[in-house]
C-alpha cells in the first residue's frame, strides 16, 4: 500500500526527474498553492520556471467539522508550474499518475472544463478539473494573467488534490482513514485539529478584531511595497486573504463588501507583481537562457498504416490530371474542448466549410462535420483536385473615354487591357448600369486544390470563435484550448500548412486511455475506420445515440428509465469520444433528501443520468459514461459511487444545517446579497415584491384569501437564497424555498408559490400553476425589468447578465399560457413606484417595447403572419393576451370573402384623414342625406364597440357602414371649399377611422 507521505515523495522525485525544481510550502496560510510566491510571482516575466512543491491550503468555508469524507478546511495540494509549456504537459501529468500507480487504461481519467479565477490576486486562467473515475483530483490551468498583468509566457499550473488521490489509491472511504505512513492515520494526526479550526472559523473568530487585522495587514503590505520588499508585501497580502476568508466563513461578507475586499487585495497584488517584474528586469533576467523542459517521445499506436514520421513518398502534390476528385480530411487536434465550445465549433464549421469551399471555387461532394473533445474534423467525400477556372468579365472605363471619335483605343483602354492581361483587340463594349463601358473577358486558371488549402485551412481555424480563448505558446495564437496536432490529407497526399507553430501532416492521435498514440494515416478515406478501430466515435450524432441506447438499457436492468434531458445528453456526448456507460448505485438513505437535490447534484457536479421508476421518483441508481472501454469497469464504478456518496453527504450536511431554522430566519441575511448596486440588496427586492404583488393580485381578481397567500409568499420568496444549499447550487433556488417553507410550517399554497415564482426558466419550461405563483412570478420579473432598465442595464447584443430577455419572455409565456388580461405598461409603472431611484418615462417605454419584442417572437412562432402580428402589437402589444386574441381573429377575418371590401373601405377613411389635424364632429353641420346616414350609423357602431372590444366585435359593428361609406365617397365631396362643412366631413371620417383604435392597427396589414 502506498502511503500519503510516499505519494508526496514520488511526485517530488517524478517532477525533479523531469527537470523541475523542488520547492517548499510557504510560511503563510494560503488558500491554494497558487498563492505561494513560487507561482503567483514567478509565473511573471519572460524567464523559464519549472517547479513542484507541497502546499497545505486553508479554505475556512470548506470546513465540515470532520463529518464529510473528503471536504476539509485544510487540505494538501501538490503544485507544479511549467513555464514555458513543454508541448506535452497533459501527457507528462498523466505519466505522473502512472508513477503513483494509477494506470490510465484501468480508470476513467477525464479533463472537464474549469475556468479558474482569483479575484483577490488579479489572476485567471483556463483549463480543466481532472476527474479520476468521477472524482476531481487535480486542477489543471493555463495561466493567462497574474497580479492583474497579462503573462508574456503562459504557464501551465497543475494542482493535485493529494488527499483525494490517496483515498483512491488506498481504497478508503474517508480522508480520516488514510494511512499517513505505516503507523499513523491521517485522522490521528489531523482530525482533532480540523474540528478545532472549524469551531474557530464558524463560531469563535471575533469579527471586529478580524476587520481590524485586515486593515493592519493591508497597511503593512503597502509599507513593504513602498520599500520595494516584494515577498514580505505578498505575505501580508496573504494574511489579508486568509482574514477575508474567516470573515466570509462567519457570514459577514455581503456581495458589495466582497467586491470591495477583492478590489483592495487586487490592488496590492498588482503593485507586488509590478515590483517583482521591475526587480527581475533590473537584474537582467538572469534565468532567461536556461532551458525549459524538453518534449517527451510520443507513444506509438498499435494500428498504423505507415511508420510514424515517414511519408512513403506521397507528400508531393497530387497529379491534378490523374483524377478529378478525391476524399479530403482536415483534423484539428486539441486538448479537451469544453462541451459548450465543441458544440459551438461544430455549428460554425457546418456553416463555414461548405461556404468557404464554394467561394474558393473548389467543387465538392457532401461535407461531414465531426467532433470529439479532442478533435474537430471536416471530411469531404469528394473534392476536386483543382480549382475551377475563374471565368469573369471585368468592367473598365466608359466607352467614350476608352475610344476616340475614330474608334481607336485611347491610353485608358490600353492601360485597362494591360492591367487585365488581355489584348486591346479583345475588349468589348457593353451596356452596364445604364451606360456603355469597356469590358474585358478574362479566364483565370484554377490552382491545385492543395495550394488553395494552404491559405484556406489556417483561416478556418482562426475564424472559429469561442466564449473564452487562451494562449499557450510563443505563437500568441488564441484558441479554446491548445492545438497539439493538425492533419490535412487530400486522398493520399498531404496538404501542408502551418498554424500556431505546428505543421500539418498525416499523423493523428488515438484515445487518452491508450496513451494518445500517434497514428499515421495512409489516406483521407482511412480516417473513420482508423478512429473506429480505437473505439473513437467521431460523429457526435452517432455518439449521442450510442450513449442514450447504452444508458436506457442499463436503467431497464433495474426496472427504471432515463428521463429525457437533451441538454445533459449533449454535454455528456461532448465530454467523451470512446463512450461506455455503466450503472452505479448509492445508499438508499439519501433518498430522504428532496428529489430535486439528488438530481441537481448528479447533473451539476457529476454529469450523471438519474434513474427514475415508473412513478417518476428517483431510484438509488445512476448512469455515468466512461471515456474508454469495458475493461476494469468495476473499478471505475466504485470510484463514481464513492464520489456521489461524498456529494450527497455534503448535500445532507447543507440540508441539515439549513433546517435548523425556519425559512424566515434567513430573510435578514438577504441584506448581504446585492441585487444591483443602485437597486439595493435582495432584501430590498423582497420589500418591493411585497408592495407590488398584492397590486397585481387585485388586477387579476384574486380573492382576499388568495391575496393573503400572495403576501406571505412574497415575504419569503427570496429567503432561500441565503441558505447553504442554494448558495452551493443556485439551480435549486425556489425549490429549496418550497421545501424549507413546508418544514417551517408554512401552508402548501405559500410553499408552492415560492417554488413557482421562478417559472418559466426557459421557453420549454412549465408555467406556474397556482394563482399566487403566477402573481409572484409576474411581480419578480416586472420589478427586475423596471429597475434594471431605469439604471441603464438593458440587454445589449449578446450581453444580458441579469437575464432580462428570459424575464420578459417569462411574462409573455405566463400571460398567454393562462389567458390573463394584464397591462404590462401599467405593471411596469407600478413597479417603478417602489424603486429607490427615479425612473425616466423613456426607460419605462423602452422596457415595454422590450417585452413587446418578446411577444412578437412568441406570436410569430405560433404561426401568425408578420403583418397580422404587427397590426395586433401596434394596438395591444402591452397586453399580450389581448394582442394574441386580435392576431387570432384577424387571421380568421382575412380569410373572409368580403375582406378586401371591408379593408378597402376602412382604409379610404384612414388615408384621407391621415395628414389632417383632429376635428370635432358636429352632427348638425352635415347636410347631405348620405353623410347624415353615415353619421347615424357611426353613432350606432360606437355604441357597440370600444377600445376593449375584440376584432370580431369591431368587424360586426363596421360591416353595416361599408355600403354607406361607398355611397358617401361616390356622392359627397369631402374636401369642399366650405371650411365648416369640410371639417365636419373630415371629423366624421376620423371617427370612423378611430373605431379600431385600441383593437388593431389595420394599416399594418398587407393590402391596406
Q: Could you characterize the architecture of this molecule?
A:
- The protein is α+β, with helices and mostly antiparallel strands and 1008 residues long.
- It is built from 33 helices and 24 strands.
- The protein has a seven-stranded mixed β-sheet. It has a five-stranded antiparallel β-sheet with strand order 9-10-8-14-15, covered by helices on one side.
- Helix 14 crosses helix 15, helix 21 runs antiparallel to helix 22 (748-756) and helix 26 (841-861) runs antiparallel to helix 27 (866-876).
Secondary structure layout plus pairing:
Blueprint: H1 4-18, E1 21-22, H2 37-40, E2 49-58, E3 74-83, H3 89-99, E4 109-118, E5 123-132, E6 135-146, E7 149-161, H4 162-170, H5 186-204, H6 207-226, H7 230-249, H8 255-282, E8 325-334, H9 339-359, E9 367-372, E10 375-384, E11 390-398, H10 399-402, H11 411-419, E12 428-432, E13 435-444, H12 449-463, E14 483-490, E15 493-494, E16 498-499, E17 502-503, E18 507-509, E19 518-520, H13 527-533, H14 540-557, H15 566-573, E20 579-585, H16 595-606, E21 609-612, E22 618-627, H17 633-658, E23 674-676, E24 680-681, H18 682-699, H19 704-716, H20 724-728, H21 735-743, H22 748-756, H23 771-790, H24 804-817, H25 824-832, H26 841-861, H27 866-876, H28 880-894, H29 899-913, H30 929-944, H31 951-958, H32 961-971, H33 979-993
Parallel strand pairs: 1-2
Antiparallel strand pairs: 2-3, 3-7, 4-5, 5-6, 6-7, 8-10, 8-14, 9-10, 11-13, 12-13, 14-15, 16-17, 18-19, 20-22, 21-22, 23-24
Helix pairs in contact: 6-7, 6-8, 7-8, 14-15, 16-17, 18-19, 18-23, 19-22, 19-23, 21-22, 22-23, 23-24, 23-25, 23-26, 24-26, 25-26, 26-27, 27-28, 29-33, 30-31, 30-32, 30-33
